[in-house]
């Protein structure tokens, strides 16, 4: 078998599809060429034909790769085993295991943002190229691309720190631009269409949309809401600090309409209220959101935009800004000292009155 040379490695033909191995005179040593043009040095050893990835050309030269392969073969003669490269799926599970100390909303965000990359599951982590990640990122909507990039970059930083890779494939990719602050406010007519479409959809997605409109909360807060967080006797919903982005406990009152919706949903389960599986909280946003917007007849809005008409309508109804901010779980920077203490004291009473006025307005937009 001819010995590979630098010139022959540079000129190896690229297969039209799949991968092709070009062997060397050193037993088991070869160059694997993919249809994308990448060239990787590999070594096949043992009766089970275990394939060990040595490195990618030209980051590692032919002579360096051959020397490394020779060391591996020598080590095997001495009884030293070399493990194969980990797959993306294996690294993903290792990485997620280290995120267990993060707040619940952060863990859910990690799962959601990394989900598109799971198509790389069985691919060796050392074989993932910038083009693989770029293709996945390009398919994501702009509103989520920046967050997804940050999450996958963190995963590869973890793999680099654990010495599973020598270089992150994201190093050569530009960070997507940060999401622009949005000012999209749905008109009264558009909000009415959203509400009526939500009624048509029903449980679970339509019901989630209704509660987003009625409460002004983040979508994850509603979709993962457990039954134990609802106090029907006092008409209150409480989210613990670990479920909140600002790490502060959040409590809101709710009116009769919201209460009737929550009560109906609570009869389905004593644990997670919104689920497609009976166990895991609802998370099929990409499956439902696009179709829902299309059915509304206008698509230039996001679920997060539903918080804006919530604040706008409250303002039009005379709700004080600090009450709106507290209902949205925003920080209230304009209050300090005695004023801040006073407003905390009256928060639930004022907020409950505001919620009743707001609910009456929303009720007028729903089908009779």
Helix content: 40-55%
Please give the alpha-carbon distance between the first and last residues.
Answer: 82 Å
CATH architectural label of the largest domain: Orthogonal Bundle
Major sheet size, sense and barrel closure = 4 strands, antiparallel
Shape from CA axes? elongated
Strand segment tally: 7
Number of helices: 14
**Percentage of residues in strands:** 5-15%
Give the integer mean of the pLDDT values. 85
CATH superfamily of the largest domain: Intergrase catalytic core
Structural class category? alpha+beta
How many domains, as an integer? 3
Could you give the order of the helices and strands? HEEEEHHHHHHHHEEEHHHHH
* Biggest sheet, spatial arrangement of strands: 1-2-3-4
If you consult CATH, what is the topology of the largest domain?
A: hpI Integrase, Chain A
| Low-confidence region ranges | 333-346
CATH domain class of the largest domain: Mainly Alpha
Q: What radius of gyration results from the CA coordinates?
A: 27 Å
């Amino acid at each position: 078998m001819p010995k590979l040379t630098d010139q022959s490695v540079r000129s190896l033909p690229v297969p039209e599809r799949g991968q092709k191995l070009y062997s060397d005179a050193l037993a088991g040593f070869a160059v694997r060429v993919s249809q994308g043009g990448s060239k990787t040095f590999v070594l096949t050893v043992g009766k089970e034909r275990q394939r060990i990835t040595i490195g990618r050309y030209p980051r590692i030269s032919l002579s360096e790769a051959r020397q490394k392969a020779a060391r591996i073969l020598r080590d095997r003669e001495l009884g030293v085993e070399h493990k194969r490269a980990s797959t993306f799926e294996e690294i993903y599970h290792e990485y997620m295991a280290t995120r267990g100390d993060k707040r619940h909303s952060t863990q859910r965000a990690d799962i959601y943002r990394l989900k598109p990359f799971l198509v790389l599951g069985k691919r060796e982590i050392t074989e993932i190229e910038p083009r693989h990640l770029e293709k996945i990122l390009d398919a994501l909507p702009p509103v989520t691309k920046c967050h997804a990039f940050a999450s996958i970059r963190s995963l590869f930083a973890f793999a680099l720190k654990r010495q599973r890779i020598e270089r992150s494939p994201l190093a050569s990719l530009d960070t997507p631009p940060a999401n622009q602050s949005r000012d999209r406010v749905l008109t009264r007519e558009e909000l009415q269409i959203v509400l009526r479409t939500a009624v048509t959809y029903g449980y679970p997605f339509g019901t989630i949309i209704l509660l987003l409109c009625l409460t002004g909360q983040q979508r994850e807060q509603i979709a993962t809401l457990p039954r134990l967080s609802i106090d029907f006797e006092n008409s209150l919903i409480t989210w613990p600090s670990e479920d909140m982005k600002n790490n502060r406990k959040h409590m809101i009152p709710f009116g009769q309409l919201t209460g009737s919706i929550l009560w109906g949903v609570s009869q389905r389960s004593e644990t997670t209220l919104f689920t497609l599986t009976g166990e895991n909280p609802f998370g099929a946003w990409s499956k439902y959101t696009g179709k829902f917007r299309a059915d509304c007849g206008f698509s230039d809005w996001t679920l997060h935009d539903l918080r804006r008409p919530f604040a706008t309508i409250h303002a039009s109804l005379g709700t004080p800004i600090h009450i709106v901010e507290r209902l949205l779980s925003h920080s209230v920077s304009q209050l300090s000292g005695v004023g801040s203490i006073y407003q905390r004291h009256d928060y639930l009473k004022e907020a409950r009155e505001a919620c009743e006025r707001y609910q009456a307005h929303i009720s007028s937009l729903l089908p009779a």
